[in-house]
Amino acid sequence: MVSAGLLKVAVLLSLAASGALGRSIPMSRRDTAASGFTLTGAAAPDTPLTLKIALTQSNPSGLEDALYDVSTPSSLQYGQHLSKEAAAAYVAPSSDTTSAVNSWLQQNGLSATTLTPAGDWISVETTVGQANELLGASYNAYTHDSTGKQVYRTLEYSIPDELESHVAVVHPTVMFPKYSTLSPIVSTRSSKRQQARADVSSESAAASCGSTVTPACLQSLYGIPTTPATESSNVLGVTGYGDNWANKADLKSFLSKYRTDISSSTTYSLETLDGGSDPQSSSDAGVEADLDVEYTVGIATGVPVTFLSVGETTNDGELDGFLDTINYYLAQDSPPQTITTSYGDWEPDIDEGMAVNLCNAYAQLGARGVSIMFASGDGGVSGVQSKDCTTFLPEFPSGCPYVTSVGGTTGTNPETAVSFSGGGFSNYWAQPSYQSTVVPEYLKYLGTTYTGLYNASGRGFPDVATQAQDFEIVTGGSAEPVSGTSCASPTFAAIISLLNDELIAAGKSPLGFLNPWLYSTAASALTDITSGNNPGCNTNGFSATTGWDPVTGLGTPVFSKLKTAAGL
Hints:
The protein is of the alpha/beta class. It has 15 helices and 26 strands. The termini are far apart.
């Protein structure tokens, strides 16, 4: 007997041969190019174009169930993280899907290269002319106004209707790249910070914070230990994009000044992707990369730190870089136990299919025991950076429920929400189960304020917070203070990596996906932040208050309590 799957493929081949696959369904469209891009003209038909195609995943809901099983402290499977193969199996496309898509490509003289262990992403080398025919598209050349970079995009595309259940996303199509979407703000020393600390006694934990944040400040404020980690297998990954490079001489100077108790030769390991590099002249030093490396190496004492420099030879902006980054880590047999990223985008600027696919990839890595942190953004309720808006703009990937979003605080007596701390509610993802108690409490407190400006049923973010204002760094050979949730994410990631070191040393599993643990066992290990707000979109934004809030999440860390919550 002929199986149903084989019969379906045979029918597709027959339809393709007869031309019946000419009917198409629209996948995505937009009215105009993204802000900041100018139409140059129609793209030449012979222009080379690499298409990346996301195939429909077989069992994403099963992946979510497995993720929560291994990440929820009350579960019998807690800490029993999946292997690479087991995690990939949940998102591997069905044989019907793979065969149908490959048949479609072959009928058009094309072949695919598999990009992921699960086979859910493939790439196709083609030309603009053929892509126009294949996708019912009209690719044009667009120039980014501030950088002069040129990209090829279409404002709409379609696929044969018989492939509707087999293809999730084709890229690049309607999504335009962002360049340097989330960068720390070089700042003067804050009068607010000085005032907040004016009455702090020399005996208190905050006494070492002074007018700027240093490693000693964070260590005293959050009780972070200075004893070196011992487990070489426990790695902290830092990602970098947009030619923003870390500088080893800057790190050496930073450690010489702010971590005199460890060797100033302590450094990071370099990994590269998409033609990434890490030039070491002082003029090439990047503020973002220096910040991220200095406050991971400088806080996570003795933890091996890797800096992944993602270039742009096979992608054109951070979103493409995000996709290649997660696929790079998924392909590794032993990815870092902790990863921090200080870049992001506005959620509405990302096609929902692409956003969901990336979020599922984070779930896959989380199920394997990796803790993934993203900065929550620096525009308050306006998203990644300040922007004119009529409704609140959630940030991506912070809106993804499978990552830990880190917001920002300032001051120490007490800590308050910093005004730029990104936070809000996703329009793509519903409220996750781990927020089922705390988010409704905040919504009750909020009442009818801002009704219609945000999605009250969406996943709320951030999840936690740390200091984010006036971090002292060394970049290009000079010391200067910077601010942003770019400061907070590597700080929290460094704390998690130290906890993972102790867990592994004790023969236990690393923490993995953090949120179910944070919202249950570890909730009491965080200091609730109850004042401050995050203005944006011509409003005062959300307010911090007792309990979880979309400004500082559950609060800031207390290392000793987190250690207890981790079972150490």
